[in-house]
# Entry
Amino acid sequence: MKPAFLQFLKRAFHAEPKLHPVENGLAKRWIKQRLLVVFPELRNNPAALEQAYRTLNLEPRLGTEEGEKGAIFQLTVPGED
# Structure
């Protein structure tokens, strides 16, 4: 069998590993810092900052394609399906 086919089978039958909590925390912090830069009105309003972060719907996943190493944090823009 070809190595690419074997790799495909391994990915198909193995569950995706869980992300480390530190990676999730770092991603959340980085996104919130970027939100503060883009939207300075959120600076003194932690509730609005948290709401803006939750609206982005941060979806962490592990990189599985070539060139994707470690965790990939995919942002889903509200209203786009």
The radius of gyration is 17 Å. The chain has a mean pLDDT of 78.
